[in-house]
Amino acid sequence: MPVKAYDLTGRTAFVTGAASGIGRASALLLAEAGATVHCADRDDEGLHETAALIKAAGGEAHIHRLDVAGREQVDRAVAQAAATATAATPHGRLDIMAAIAGIMHSSPVLETRDEDLDRVLNINFKGVLYACQAAARAMIDAASATATGTGVHTRTGGSIITMASGAVDTGGPGLLCYDAAKAAVVQLTKTLATEVGPHGIRVNAVAPGWIRTPMTDHHDTKPHAHTGEVMARMSPLGRVGEPEDIAHAVLHLASDASAFTTGQILRPNGGVAMPW
Q1: CA 246, 194, 129 angle in degrees (round to 5)?
Q2: What pTM was estimated for this model as a whole?
Q3: What string of DSSP letters covers 91-145?
Q4: Helices first, then strands: H and E counts in the chain
Q5: Boundaries of every domain in the chain
Q6: How far apart are CA 261 and CA 276, in angstroms?
Q7: Active-site residue among 6, 14, 130, 178?
Q8: pLDDT in tens, 235-255
Q9: Interval 166-175: pLDDT, tens
Q10: Which CATH superfamily is domain 4-266 in?
Q11: What's the Cα-to-Cα distance from 201 to each of 14, 99, 123, 227, rounded to whole Å?
Q12: Active site residue 6
């Protein structure tokens, strides 16, 4: 059982990108903390594996196969998750959104094509935007129902967590599309935090350093040295991150331990970047 402030028993979480990497690690940790987790991804096989891991550990998981770049798909899945009854929430609700799904693309600025930029922005920015919009609407509706005395929810507010990147602090050759999308996510996070704060909803971002995941492994194409090895040498801690390192940041922002935190960027990056 986690420390009380990190106990998510009775809460419902929606995690995009849950089929692998940071998304899977976050879904597993949120479930371990007691949340009912709705796992979303376009990778059907990976989704079922994540859900199976959660259930094998005694947690409750639901699956939503979707492409986060499709607004209607996201709206439908989040609404369904918010309406799903559980033993603790017989009328359903949504407490946590972790918008983690993302892709990488490498090309020099002078060789970047419209279709490359559009594909990355559609998933890494618009996909996060759609998830945030859908979650915020569900959370605001729940808060309004409670305030008027017509609803059944006993907890107002909620926590929305976006996934930025250490790239917003450092940049890097060949990563224009990825960096631009993650910078947009940071601005989305700050702006949304100001708009939904009056409803008790918190919005924060996690900006990881280099994390060992299937996505980064696939794009690690340095001819002489793996990017992970280079980043490990640059880090004061002497290593790159694992998905579980970022999952703990997600849990912190999802939980009451961060009840007075909103509009912030949490940077688990091994010390590679130390902005003011």
Answers
A1: 55
A2: 0.90
A3: T----EEEE-------B-GGG--HHHHHHHIIIIIIHHHHHHHHHHHHHHHHHHH
A4: 10, 7
A5: 4-266
A6: 17
A7: 178
A8: 788 888 899 999 999 999 999
A9: 989 887 789 9
A10: NAD(P)-binding Rossmann-like Domain (3.40.50.720)
A11: 15, 15, 24, 37
A12: no
